Amino acid sequence: MTVSVVIPTYNRPERLSQVLDAIFASEVDVGGQVEVIVVDDGSSPRSENVVSSKSPPERFTLRYV
Length: 65
Fold this sequence. Notes:
By secondary structure, the chain is an alpha/beta fold. The protein is built from two helices and three strands; from the N terminus they run E-H-E-H-E.
């Protein structure tokens, strides 16, 4: 089973980094993969830099839209 977590963001790179760190540190067992999708609504500076700087643990995948 795959669980998807969608995070909308706009001009909050520091907060986005904290949220991603908290999700990746979670110990909730979903019985499969966790897909984290960050949806940026045109932030300036773009949140893509925050997302690309993260190395998710093995059971997580991270996408930027």
